Amino acid sequence: EGDYQRGQTAAPMKLLKEVGAALCRLPDSFKPHRTLARLLEQKREMIDTGEGIDWATAEALAFGTLLTEGYRVRLSGQDVARGTFSQRHAVLHDQSRSNWAEGTLVPLQNVADGQAPFTVIDSILSEEAVLGFEYGYAAAEPNTLVIWEAQFGDFVNGAQVVIDQFIAAGEVKWGRANGLTLMLPHGYEGQGPDH
User: Fold this and answer.
1) 40-77: per-residue pLDDT in tens?
2) Tens of pLDDT along 131-162?
3) Fewer CB under 10 Å: which end of the chain, C or N?
4) Which runs of consecutive H residues, i.e. helices, occur in the chain?
5) How far is CA 36 from the centre of its chain?
């Protein structure tokens, strides 16, 4: 236990259901991909019944509740909008749009009135540069949940210097804590030596 601060992290069921409903709400004019429409229907059922909540839905509920409490959430990395395994769907695309730069929807930006901002950035595949930037961002914004996600967990090797010299050693070296969160997804085998 030591000197660590502990807090209440549970969210009321009423709030979870409200956030869950917002995650599945689409404007009437928005036409999702048919596979995504099916996934959103499954998510609605998970939220309604409270059963079978998968990792991606739990993650979105956690982000959504933080946003309603006034905490900013920033997520970056290659393919974070859809998720490495196409599980997240943080950015939805209208299938009837006429311009590729229009017709996107980010449900976590529309959870509640007065919520904190949610930012999702599909970054370039330059792990060292992006992780270094996010480390600096997290240092400057300690009340923001800043997450960098490697496209695959093994890709973090390209950012090892930032991890060794800043994330792992920064507090001892400079007396500065940093709340940057790393997500290192794994799960599919046989996709080549980097996976």
Assistant:
1) 999 999 999 999 999 999 999 999 999 999 999 999 99
2) 999 999 999 999 999 999 988 767 788 899 99
3) N
4) 13-24, 34-49, 55-68, 127-140, 160-162, 170-174
5) 18
Buried b (16+ CB within 10 A) or exposed e, 77-115: bbbbbbbbeeebbbbbbbeeeeeeeebeeebbebbeeeb
Distance of CA 80 to the CA centre of its chain: 7
Banded pLDDT at 99 (limits 50, 70, 90): confident
Rounded to 10 deg, the angle between the 55-68 and 34-49 helix axes is 70
Token code pair at residue 153: 């967990």
Q: Is the dihedral of CA 39, 22, 184, 77 positive or negative?
A: positive
| 161, 184 Cβ separation under 8 angstroms | no
pLDDT of residue 190: 61
What is the C-alpha separation between 50 and 62, in angstroms, rounded? 15
